[in-house]
């Protein structure tokens, strides 16, 4: 069996040392020392300020909407946020869950990120925010998006779940927007089993979010505002600290896997056009086939040999019936979603296994 991704597991002895510390201190959660240490180390590694660790990437989005006032329903109309239909369901469902109506704008056919022209066309008097996704770690047109937001006084929350460590023009991609969120789910490039983080532009938003993730409690007998539980615990942080030590080896191995795919797969398979100013983190290996029939034939061929390729992201979210489907058809997103497959990428993927994957793809293509 070759899965589409495999969680990276750290050196067991190193993990045990962290666990020994947790047993000694018996401090398991509520902003413990390992959570504090991981916060510092991630700020340093990612070169950002105002980073807040949370229990998962979905709550990272929800807390960001709340901290920035996007989700406040103190008006008569439902607040709206413009987002992409070509993403994991959590980007849109987290908005809906917070009482914000996701309004889809279509993606660019080459970068597969939100098309700024479509964003501007989707703005209504109820629009409060733009929630773009750096899909597969590819930087959105952050400069165009931030300028649209400034012109229309909108907040921007980047779902950067795929963009761990990506740099843009010499700084962190996470420094764009009012906030950027990360997912540290086990399947992601860097993980804490379950987990996530928010990087805020402004310190006061971070301070508000710190209250929100701990029930709004600010002192032993003081509850200041409506909050929820979104805290990361010490075991999650221990995993993160171990993996951060090994991140270079992980990135290196993935880069080699990606390079081999690029060398062996035919150029007739469409690749994502990367933003020229952004670095690459090798998190995913998406390829777009000429037709849906061809993509499905290859997927079937691979699965006959125990190899999983996933239809990320299918269906296009404007076709999902959760009160988020849109009247306007997102043609580009639907088209890419119908023809895309993500191929297996993980640090341990052997050259031999990768050869079989490539052979099965060529076979499925009739080459
Ligand atoms: C993984 C992911 C999320 C959700 O993160 P969890 O940590 O699983 O809650 C949100 N958005 C995108 C784009 C993702 O890939």
How would you characterize the overall build of this protein?
By secondary structure, the protein is of the alpha/beta class. The protein has two domains: 12-244, Type I PLP-dependent aspartate aminotransferase-like (Major domain) (Aspartate Aminotransferase, domain 2, 3-Layer(aba) Sandwich); 247-364, Aspartate Aminotransferase, domain 1. The chain is 39% helix and 13% strand. The protein has helices spanning 12-25, 33-46, 57-67, 89-97, 116-122, 142-152, 203-212, 234-245, 247-264, 292-304, 331-339, 351-364, and strands spanning 51-54, 80-83, 101-104, 127-131, 155-159, 167-168, 171-172, 179-183, 196-200, 217-219, 222-223, 285-288, 340-343. The strands form four sheets. The chain has a seven-stranded mixed beta sheet with strand order 1-9-8-5-4-2-3, sandwiched between helices. A two-stranded antiparallel ribbon has the order 6-7. The two termini are 24 Å apart. Bound molecules: pyridoxal-5'-phosphate.
The CATH class of the largest domain is identified as Alpha Beta
The rough form would be described as: globular
Let me know the average pLDDT.
96
- Could you give the order of strands across the largest sheet? 1-9-8-5-4-2-3
The small molecules bound here are: pyridoxal-5'-phosphate
Measured as a percent range, the helix fraction is: 25-40%
Rg (CA only): 21 Å
Instruction: Count structural domains.
Output: 2
CATH topology tier name of the largest domain? Aspartate Aminotransferase, domain 2
Instruction: List the secondary-structure elements in sequence, H or E.
Output: HHEHEHEHEHEEEEEHEEHHEHHEH
């Amino acid at each position: 069996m070759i899965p589409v991704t495999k969680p990276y597991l750290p050196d067991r002895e190193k993990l045990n040392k962290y666990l020994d510390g947790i047993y000694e201190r018996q401090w398991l959660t509520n902003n413990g020392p390992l959570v504090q240490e991981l916060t510092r180390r991630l700020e340093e590694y990612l070169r950002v300020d105002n980073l807040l660790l949370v229990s998962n990437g979905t709550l990272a989005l929800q807390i960001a909407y709340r901290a920035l006032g996007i989700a406040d329903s103190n008006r008569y109309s439902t607040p709206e946020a413009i987002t992409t239909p070509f993403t994991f369901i959590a980007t849109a469902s987290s908005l809906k869950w917070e009482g914000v109506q996701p309004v889809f704008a279509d993606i660019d056919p080459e970068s597969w990120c939100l098309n700024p022209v479509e964003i501007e066309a989707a703005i209504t008097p109820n629009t409060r925010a733009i929630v773009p996704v750096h899909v597969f770690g590819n930087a959105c047109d952050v400069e165009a998006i931030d300028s649209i937001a400034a012109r229309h006084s909108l907040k921007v929350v980047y779902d950067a779940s795929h963009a761990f460590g990506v740099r843009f023009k010499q700084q962190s991609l996470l420094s764009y927007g009012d906030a950027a969120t990360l997912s540290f789910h086990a399947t992601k490039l860097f993980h804490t089993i379950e987990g996530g983080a928010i990087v805020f532009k402004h310190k006061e938003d971070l301070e508000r979010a710190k209250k929100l993730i701990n029930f709004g409690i600010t002192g032993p007998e003081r509850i200041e505002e409506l909050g929820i539980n979104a805290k990361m615990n010490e075991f999650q942080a221990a995993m993160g600290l171990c993996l951060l030590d090994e991140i270079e080896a992980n990135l290196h191995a993935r880069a080699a896997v990606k390079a081999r795919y690029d060398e062996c797969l035919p150029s007739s398979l469409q690749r994502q056009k990367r933003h020229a100013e952004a670095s690459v983190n090798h998190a995913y290996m998406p390829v777009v086939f000429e037709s849906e029939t061809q993509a499905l034939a290859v997927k079937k061929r691979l699965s006959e040999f125990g190899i999983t390729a996933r239809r990320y992201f299918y269906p296009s979210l404007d076709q999902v019936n959760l009160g988020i489907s849109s009247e306007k058809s997102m043609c580009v997103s639907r088209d890419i979603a119908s023809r895309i497959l993500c191929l297996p990428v993980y640090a341990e993927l052997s050259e031999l296994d990768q050869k079989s994957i490539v052979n099965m793809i060529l076979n499925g293509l009739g080459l």
